[in-house]
What does this fold into?
Amino acid sequence: MNRRHFLQASLAASTSLLVFPAAYADGPITHINDAINKSGRQRMLSQRMAKSYLQIGQSIDLPRSKKIFSASIALFERQLYELEAFAPTPENKATLADLRKTWAGYKTVLVGNAPNRQDAKTIMVVNEQVLALAHASTVQLEKTSGSAAARLVNISGRQRMLSQRMAKFYQAINWGVASSDGLINLAKARDEFLLGMTELSTSPKNTPAINAEMTLAQQQWFFFDQALKSSADSMETKVRFATNVATTSERILETMDRITGMYEQLS
It folds into this structure.
Protein backbone atom coordinates (compact mmCIF):
# COMPACT_ATOMS: atom_id res chain seq x y z
CA MET A 1 0.00 0.00 0.00
CA ASN A 2 1.46 3.36 -0.96
CA ARG A 3 1.52 6.45 1.24
CA ARG A 4 -1.53 8.11 -0.29
CA HIS A 5 -3.75 5.03 -0.04
CA PHE A 6 -2.61 4.26 3.50
CA LEU A 7 -3.36 7.80 4.67
CA GLN A 8 -6.78 7.82 2.97
CA ALA A 9 -7.73 4.49 4.55
CA SER A 10 -6.56 5.61 8.00
CA LEU A 11 -8.48 8.88 7.96
CA ALA A 12 -11.63 7.29 6.53
CA ALA A 13 -11.74 4.81 9.41
CA SER A 14 -11.52 7.56 12.02
CA THR A 15 -15.14 8.58 11.53
CA SER A 16 -16.43 5.11 12.41
CA LEU A 17 -15.08 4.85 15.95
CA LEU A 18 -16.27 6.61 19.09
CA VAL A 19 -13.03 6.62 21.02
CA PHE A 20 -14.27 8.13 24.27
CA PRO A 21 -17.52 9.33 25.83
CA ALA A 22 -18.49 12.56 24.09
CA ALA A 23 -18.79 14.43 27.38
CA TYR A 24 -15.08 14.00 28.00
CA ALA A 25 -13.72 14.31 24.46
CA ASP A 26 -15.58 16.93 22.47
CA GLY A 27 -16.03 20.69 22.49
CA PRO A 28 -13.92 23.69 23.49
CA ILE A 29 -12.15 23.72 26.84
CA THR A 30 -14.18 25.58 29.45
CA HIS A 31 -12.19 25.19 32.69
CA ILE A 32 -8.76 24.20 33.97
CA ASN A 33 -9.66 20.64 34.98
CA ASP A 34 -11.00 20.03 31.48
CA ALA A 35 -7.68 21.29 30.09
CA ILE A 36 -5.70 19.01 32.41
CA ASN A 37 -7.85 16.05 31.34
CA LYS A 38 -7.36 16.73 27.64
CA SER A 39 -3.67 17.53 27.99
CA GLY A 40 -3.23 14.31 29.94
CA ARG A 41 -5.11 12.47 27.23
CA GLN A 42 -2.55 13.74 24.71
CA ARG A 43 0.09 11.82 26.67
CA MET A 44 -1.98 8.68 26.36
CA LEU A 45 -2.59 9.19 22.65
CA SER A 46 1.14 9.50 21.99
CA GLN A 47 1.47 5.94 23.29
CA ARG A 48 -1.77 4.62 21.84
CA MET A 49 -0.84 5.68 18.32
CA ALA A 50 2.49 3.86 18.64
CA LYS A 51 0.81 0.79 20.13
CA SER A 52 -1.80 0.53 17.40
CA TYR A 53 0.84 1.14 14.69
CA LEU A 54 2.85 -1.79 16.04
CA GLN A 55 -0.28 -3.94 16.15
CA ILE A 56 -1.20 -3.12 12.55
CA GLY A 57 2.31 -3.99 11.44
CA GLN A 58 1.93 -7.43 13.03
CA SER A 59 -1.73 -7.94 12.01
CA ILE A 60 -2.74 -7.99 15.68
CA ASP A 61 -6.47 -7.37 16.25
CA LEU A 62 -6.27 -5.72 12.85
CA PRO A 63 -9.70 -4.13 12.16
CA ARG A 64 -9.89 -2.60 15.64
CA SER A 65 -6.23 -1.56 15.64
CA LYS A 66 -6.75 0.35 12.38
CA LYS A 67 -9.75 2.18 13.82
CA ILE A 68 -7.90 3.00 17.03
CA PHE A 69 -4.91 4.26 15.05
CA SER A 70 -6.81 6.67 12.84
CA ALA A 71 -9.22 7.83 15.55
CA SER A 72 -6.30 8.55 17.90
CA ILE A 73 -4.58 10.72 15.29
CA ALA A 74 -7.79 12.69 14.71
CA LEU A 75 -8.44 13.15 18.44
CA PHE A 76 -4.86 14.25 19.14
CA GLU A 77 -5.05 16.94 16.47
CA ARG A 78 -8.45 18.21 17.62
CA GLN A 79 -7.39 18.42 21.25
CA LEU A 80 -4.13 20.16 20.34
CA TYR A 81 -6.10 22.99 18.75
CA GLU A 82 -8.34 23.20 21.82
CA LEU A 83 -5.38 23.29 24.20
CA GLU A 84 -3.65 25.99 22.14
CA ALA A 85 -6.81 28.11 22.27
CA PHE A 86 -7.04 27.73 26.06
CA ALA A 87 -3.34 27.98 27.00
CA PRO A 88 -3.37 30.14 30.17
CA THR A 89 0.32 31.12 30.43
CA PRO A 90 3.17 32.08 28.10
CA GLU A 91 5.08 29.02 29.35
CA ASN A 92 2.22 26.73 28.38
CA LYS A 93 1.86 28.39 24.98
CA ALA A 94 5.57 27.81 24.32
CA THR A 95 5.36 24.15 25.32
CA LEU A 96 2.37 23.62 23.03
CA ALA A 97 4.23 25.30 20.17
CA ASP A 98 7.07 22.81 20.64
CA LEU A 99 4.54 20.00 20.83
CA ARG A 100 2.97 21.02 17.54
CA LYS A 101 6.35 20.96 15.78
CA THR A 102 7.26 17.57 17.24
CA TRP A 103 3.81 16.20 16.48
CA ALA A 104 4.22 17.13 12.82
CA GLY A 105 7.29 14.92 12.58
CA TYR A 106 5.62 12.08 14.48
CA LYS A 107 2.56 12.14 12.25
CA THR A 108 4.69 12.10 9.12
CA VAL A 109 6.26 8.81 10.20
CA LEU A 110 2.96 7.35 11.41
CA VAL A 111 1.11 7.85 8.12
CA GLY A 112 3.96 8.11 5.62
CA ASN A 113 3.96 4.41 4.75
CA ALA A 114 2.11 1.26 5.71
CA PRO A 115 3.46 0.11 9.11
CA ASN A 116 6.88 -1.50 8.78
CA ARG A 117 9.70 -2.47 11.09
CA GLN A 118 12.12 0.27 9.99
CA ASP A 119 9.65 3.10 10.58
CA ALA A 120 8.55 1.40 13.79
CA LYS A 121 12.04 1.89 15.23
CA THR A 122 11.79 5.62 14.45
CA ILE A 123 8.34 5.76 16.03
CA MET A 124 9.74 4.19 19.21
CA VAL A 125 11.99 7.26 19.51
CA VAL A 126 9.72 10.08 18.36
CA ASN A 127 6.72 9.03 20.46
CA GLU A 128 8.84 9.62 23.56
CA GLN A 129 9.47 13.22 22.50
CA VAL A 130 5.75 13.85 22.00
CA LEU A 131 4.99 12.22 25.34
CA ALA A 132 7.53 14.39 27.17
CA LEU A 133 6.06 17.62 25.80
CA ALA A 134 2.46 16.56 26.44
CA HIS A 135 3.43 15.68 30.01
CA ALA A 136 5.16 19.05 30.48
CA SER A 137 2.03 20.84 29.32
CA THR A 138 -0.14 18.82 31.70
CA VAL A 139 2.11 19.56 34.67
CA GLN A 140 2.04 23.28 33.81
CA LEU A 141 -1.75 23.24 33.79
CA GLU A 142 -1.91 21.40 37.12
CA LYS A 143 0.47 23.99 38.59
CA THR A 144 -1.74 26.80 37.29
CA SER A 145 -4.74 25.28 39.02
CA GLY A 146 -3.05 24.31 42.27
CA SER A 147 -6.06 22.33 43.50
CA ALA A 148 -6.19 18.82 44.94
CA ALA A 149 -8.72 17.85 42.27
CA ALA A 150 -6.30 18.96 39.55
CA ARG A 151 -3.67 16.56 40.86
CA LEU A 152 -6.17 13.70 40.80
CA VAL A 153 -7.09 14.52 37.21
CA ASN A 154 -3.41 14.49 36.31
CA ILE A 155 -2.59 11.22 38.12
CA SER A 156 -5.68 9.43 36.86
CA GLY A 157 -5.05 10.71 33.35
CA ARG A 158 -1.47 9.46 33.55
CA GLN A 159 -2.78 5.97 34.32
CA ARG A 160 -4.41 6.02 30.88
CA MET A 161 -1.03 6.76 29.34
CA LEU A 162 0.72 4.03 31.32
CA SER A 163 -1.82 1.43 30.20
CA GLN A 164 -0.95 2.21 26.59
CA ARG A 165 2.76 2.55 27.32
CA MET A 166 2.96 -0.95 28.77
CA ALA A 167 1.10 -2.37 25.78
CA LYS A 168 3.36 -0.42 23.41
CA PHE A 169 6.51 -1.91 24.87
CA TYR A 170 5.00 -5.41 24.80
CA GLN A 171 4.08 -5.11 21.12
CA ALA A 172 7.48 -3.59 20.26
CA ILE A 173 9.30 -6.44 21.97
CA ASN A 174 6.97 -8.89 20.25
CA TRP A 175 7.92 -7.42 16.83
CA GLY A 176 11.62 -7.11 17.58
CA VAL A 177 11.70 -3.31 17.26
CA ALA A 178 12.16 -2.37 20.92
CA SER A 179 15.45 -0.96 22.16
CA SER A 180 17.62 -3.05 24.45
CA ASP A 181 15.93 -1.55 27.51
CA GLY A 182 12.40 -2.39 26.34
CA LEU A 183 11.75 -4.90 29.12
CA ILE A 184 13.14 -2.49 31.71
CA ASN A 185 10.87 0.30 30.47
CA LEU A 186 7.86 -1.99 30.53
CA ALA A 187 8.61 -2.97 34.13
CA LYS A 188 9.12 0.69 35.09
CA ALA A 189 5.76 1.66 33.58
CA ARG A 190 4.13 -1.21 35.47
CA ASP A 191 5.61 0.00 38.79
CA GLU A 192 4.46 3.55 38.09
CA PHE A 193 0.96 2.32 37.26
CA LEU A 194 0.72 0.42 40.55
CA LEU A 195 1.86 3.50 42.50
CA GLY A 196 -0.78 5.57 40.74
CA MET A 197 -3.50 3.05 41.55
CA THR A 198 -2.52 3.14 45.21
CA GLU A 199 -2.69 6.95 45.36
CA LEU A 200 -6.06 7.09 43.60
CA SER A 201 -7.58 4.25 45.62
CA THR A 202 -6.79 5.99 48.91
CA SER A 203 -7.84 9.51 47.94
CA PRO A 204 -10.23 11.07 50.48
CA LYS A 205 -11.94 12.88 47.59
CA ASN A 206 -13.23 9.67 46.06
CA THR A 207 -16.99 9.41 45.71
CA PRO A 208 -18.84 6.06 45.87
CA ALA A 209 -19.08 6.17 42.06
CA ILE A 210 -15.32 6.72 41.72
CA ASN A 211 -14.60 3.90 44.16
CA ALA A 212 -16.83 1.57 42.15
CA GLU A 213 -14.95 2.40 38.96
CA MET A 214 -11.63 1.95 40.76
CA THR A 215 -12.72 -1.53 41.81
CA LEU A 216 -13.50 -2.31 38.19
CA ALA A 217 -10.12 -0.94 37.12
CA GLN A 218 -8.37 -3.17 39.65
CA GLN A 219 -10.19 -6.20 38.24
CA GLN A 220 -9.24 -5.22 34.70
CA TRP A 221 -5.65 -4.69 35.79
CA PHE A 222 -5.44 -8.34 36.88
CA PHE A 223 -6.26 -9.55 33.37
CA PHE A 224 -4.07 -6.92 31.69
CA ASP A 225 -1.14 -7.79 33.94
CA GLN A 226 -1.54 -11.49 33.17
CA ALA A 227 -1.54 -10.71 29.45
CA LEU A 228 1.63 -8.62 29.77
CA LYS A 229 3.40 -11.52 31.51
CA SER A 230 2.56 -13.98 28.73
CA SER A 231 5.42 -15.40 26.69
CA ALA A 232 4.84 -17.37 23.50
CA ASP A 233 6.49 -20.55 22.27
CA SER A 234 4.84 -20.59 18.83
CA MET A 235 3.52 -18.13 16.26
CA GLU A 236 -0.07 -19.05 17.10
CA THR A 237 0.34 -18.33 20.80
CA LYS A 238 2.39 -15.23 20.02
CA VAL A 239 -0.52 -13.73 18.08
CA ARG A 240 -3.06 -14.79 20.69
CA PHE A 241 -1.10 -13.30 23.59
CA ALA A 242 -0.45 -10.07 21.69
CA THR A 243 -4.17 -9.83 20.94
CA ASN A 244 -4.92 -10.27 24.65
CA VAL A 245 -2.62 -7.34 25.43
CA ALA A 246 -4.33 -5.25 22.74
CA THR A 247 -7.83 -5.87 24.06
CA THR A 248 -7.15 -5.72 27.80
CA SER A 249 -5.19 -2.47 27.42
CA GLU A 250 -8.25 -0.92 25.79
CA ARG A 251 -10.60 -2.05 28.56
CA ILE A 252 -8.53 -0.55 31.34
CA LEU A 253 -8.02 2.60 29.29
CA GLU A 254 -11.77 3.10 28.95
CA THR A 255 -12.29 2.70 32.70
CA MET A 256 -9.45 5.05 33.64
CA ASP A 257 -10.82 7.61 31.18
CA ARG A 258 -14.19 7.51 32.94
CA ILE A 259 -12.48 7.90 36.30
CA THR A 260 -10.48 10.87 35.05
CA GLY A 261 -13.71 12.47 33.85
CA MET A 262 -15.21 11.98 37.32
CA TYR A 263 -12.21 13.63 38.97
CA GLU A 264 -12.52 16.47 36.48
CA GLN A 265 -15.97 17.26 37.90
CA LEU A 266 -14.72 17.58 41.49
CA SER A 267 -14.34 21.05 42.92
